[in-house]
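During the reporting period the student researcher (J.K.) took over the structure-prediction task from the postdoctoral fellow and processed the backlog of single-chain submissions. One of the processed entries is reproduced below for the supervisory committee.
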Amino acid sequence: MWKVGELAAKAGLTVRTLHHYDEIGLLSPARRTASGHRLYGEAEVGRLQRIVSLRHTGLALDEVSRVLAGTDGSLDRVLDRQIEQLRARISRDTELCGRLDALRRWSRLNGTVPVDILFEIMEAMMKAEQYYTEEQLEYLKQRGEELGEETIRSVEREWPELIAKVKSAMERGADPASEEVRALARRWDELVGMFTGGDAGVTQSLSRFYRDRMRNEGGFMGIDGALMEYVGRARGD
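J.K. obtained the following structure tokens:
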């Protein structure tokens, strides 16, 4: 027999936790001493092991109680629900990790990034999801895997440089029909094509995203309506 303190220490729990389990009828001691101290036997230790295991799956205490009592349907159904919730959480965490990794790469490329720019990037990431279907988002994820980390980092380094070159050409009045600007426009389209993979639906969603940013917010990451028009004239649009 184990006293409550001994069992708590072996199980990595607190005495208060075992007291609570007793109070709610989840785990009662085998018996009590004459002075009222709780004593637990092998059967109770085995039940506690099952409780701890179920708690580790994320089940609440009332759910654990119903599973052990056999009143919550099959254990498979309960675990299926937990697995579904965990997968959804993993998906959200993976998505967040991707966003943070993108911000880290941007910071390493551009040095210290002002907080307002970081917020702009994060806001744009969340808004962009409104423009793509689930199938398109999955396609873009696969597209990123196909390109590979090295290529993605290279493109991320090139984009700010390309935008700066186009903006410089526009500000000094370079003819958009000149070979210099047309070459920049071609590279612009090549980088966009690397992102979209030539998928017409993704390209259309991306265009709608930028149009809305131009119309509602005046621009994004240095790209405004005037710059987009300049690139369009270089293409011959």
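The committee noted the following: The longest helix spans residues 75-110.
J.K. will present the remaining backlog at the next meeting.
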